[in-house]
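Subject: sequence -> structure tokens, single chain

Hey, anyone have a minute? Need the predicted structure for the following. Not urgent.
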Amino acid sequence: MPQLALGIGKPEYSLFQETTLNGISFAVPPGANLIGWQVTLSSPPAVTLSVALYGSIDNISWFLIDSSTSVTGDFRTVLTAALYVKVSVLNASGGGLRTVSIVAQKNPVFNVMGINAATGNVIQPAGGQILMRDGTLSLPSLSFISDAAIGIYKYAANLIGIKGWTVFNSNITMSAGTPVINMGSGGQIVGLTGSIAVRSIDTTKGFALNTSTDGVMKVRNKDDSLPAQVDALGYKAGGVAGVSFGPAAPASITVVNGIVTAIS
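Reply:
Had a minute. Here:
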């Protein structure tokens, strides 16, 4: 059994102005999942100092959950599901007597979501990030209680999938500064330099709208590298400037000041 039990928001000393290496163990109060711990020295700085925070669920087997090597003292926080915590001084030289205090708090976000630090099955903090499972199209990793069928998931490497975004499924990526929205229907919208391209996922078909040089919209090919050719049946890449009206071309087109005013 531990020598002391922590109370929510009430700091306790695991070491108090001591030279011993192992501190007192504490029982973590029910519902607490955020542990704060503070290291102070009677005459800092130390030459070397290494202090570790350990956690356990049985008060017998202990495992490292956080550590500090600051030679001037430190304050740290860690999210944990441990039922018992304690500190140990792993290495120390100089700095006078050591005091280490521990406090337990509740973090409501992680109380609701839950944490599995061993497998990352739900959500866990690491390196200042919040990490989630990849998820899938059928089971997004970030979803809603009222509608678990929609949400955000990892589509592929460096790709975010969004299920239920408006009326279609899509994913968004940023590669070398180029934003791409892949539509669930097999098409994509690509942000090129000074233009927007609408094309197939395999990039073999499509067109671009370009206004980068003079503010005049130009219809270009799918890569925005050549002028597009357009006919009455739809777009087809030709690489030649102009407009085609298909097999049933009109006999006469009237152009006034560069504007088509009549077709017959």
